[in-house]
From TrEMBL:
Residues 29-264 form the Radical SAM core domain. The keyword Metal-binding applies. GO terms for molecular function: catalytic activity; iron-sulfur cluster binding; metal ion binding. SUPFAM superfamilies: Radical SAM enzymes. Pfam families: Radical_SAM. This is Radical SAM core domain-containing protein. The keyword Iron-sulfur applies.
Length: 341
């Protein structure tokens, strides 16, 4: 397997998706209420589970290219032009897939200018992602300004145990920082989606996962959350760590939505971890006690029940993001969606 290596220039030269062809060929995506965009192609962090981490990108292209291309943002006019194409199709919100919306070399000026233009030209709510450290570093001005166009912030928790954070190369984070960042976002009126990863290559993956869920309850009980099984991607540091230590799961396709773990745990452990992913929103939003959590994660759900749980979680997330319109939009989704897991 080879790597195609093209020297980056600046985000101004970034190719724009051919949405006309994409939506023509996949009409369901054209009609989907949620579309995807990005402004900054790179990430400042070097997480071990990511195959496009900052360390890997710097190794491929160098420090200068990483800073000037990957951590810079596209010209605002390019982003707006792309959004104007998108809103020709039925769209209720934009998922902003920048890895960390409050990071980057020009965040304070770019975001403030962008918000005013976006409100005037597009006026759709955004779902964005960030980290605790970036939230705590950002100025009040940029956090207050971004709130005008953002409906929910995804806050990357990933793990709670210090040794698990270290395994993810996120030892710069801690529960204390996560809690402080969560409280700061809430003080500005943001809804928050807490994001985590379970199924780590540790001795007790189920207990590690429960520690993460309990930590998210301490950080932000009442908020929705997204809990995913660890995927072992090529070129990632976690892949190198796993080699020779654990067996990888040949049934894992790399799709987190399946709930299938990247590591080949026992069948019973995989089932429990999948249940934790499915039930995490219930556990965190409604602050379920540890006793009830431990009882529920060991239930062997049949396919019909499993799919109903998936749709219940889906509805919680849609309503949390879109508020009054969420229930109606979810009903439209439910009528046209074939749930697989």
């Amino acid at each position: 397997v080879g790597v195609i290596k093209t020297e980056p220039t600046t985000p101004r030269d970034m190719a724009r998706p051919d949405r006309l062809t994409y939506y023509r060929d996949i009409p369901r995506m054209a009609k989907r209420y949620r579309k995807v965009m990005l402004a900054m192609p790179g990430c400042p962090w070097n997480c071990s589970y990511c195959s496009s981490s900052s360390g890997f990108i710097r190794k491929l292209f160098g420090v200068v290219a990483h800073r000037n291309y990957y951590l810079s943002r596209r010209p605002i006019e390019h982003v707006i032009d792309e959004a104007l194409e998108i809103i020709k199709y039925p769209t209720k919100e934009i998922e902003w897939v920048d890895d960390d919306v409050f990071s980057g070399i020009n965040v304070e000026t770019w975001l403030v200018n962008f918000v005013e233009i976006w409100k005037r030209e597009i006026n759709l709510p955004l779902y964005v992602s960030t980290t605790s450290v970036s939230v705590l570093r950002a100025s009040d001005k940029v956090i207050r300004t971004l709130k005008q166009i953002v409906n929910v912030v995804g806050l990357g928790i990933q793990a709670i145990r210090p040794e698990s954070l270290k395994l993810f190369n996120r030892q710069w984070d801690s529960e204390e920082k996560m809690k402080a960042a969560y409280d700061r976002l809430r003080s500005f009126g943001y809804s928050v989606n807490l994001q985590c990863i379970v199924g780590l290559p540790v001795i007790d993956p189920i207990e590690d996962a429960l520690d993460t869920i309990k930590g998210m309850q301490r950080i932000g009980a009442g908020s929705i959350c997204s809990c995913y099984p660890l995927q072992i991607y090529p070129s990632s540091a976690i892949k190198r760590y796993c080699d020779g230590r654990v067996k990888l799961n040949s049934d894992c396709s790399g799709d987190t939505n399946t709930g299938i773990t990247g590591i080949n745990f026992t069948e019973s452990t995989q089932r429990v971890l999948r249940n934790i992913c499915k039930l995490a929103t219930l556990f965190v939003k409604y602050n379920i006690s540890e006793e009830w959590m431990r009882a529920l994660i060991y239930i062997d759900f049949n396919d019909e029940t499993s799919k109903k749980l998936s749709m219940a979680r889906y509805k919680e997330c849609v309503v949390d993001r879109l508020k009054e319109d969420g229930s109606r939009i979810f009903q439209e989704i439910a009528e046209t969606t074939n749930v697989r897991y």
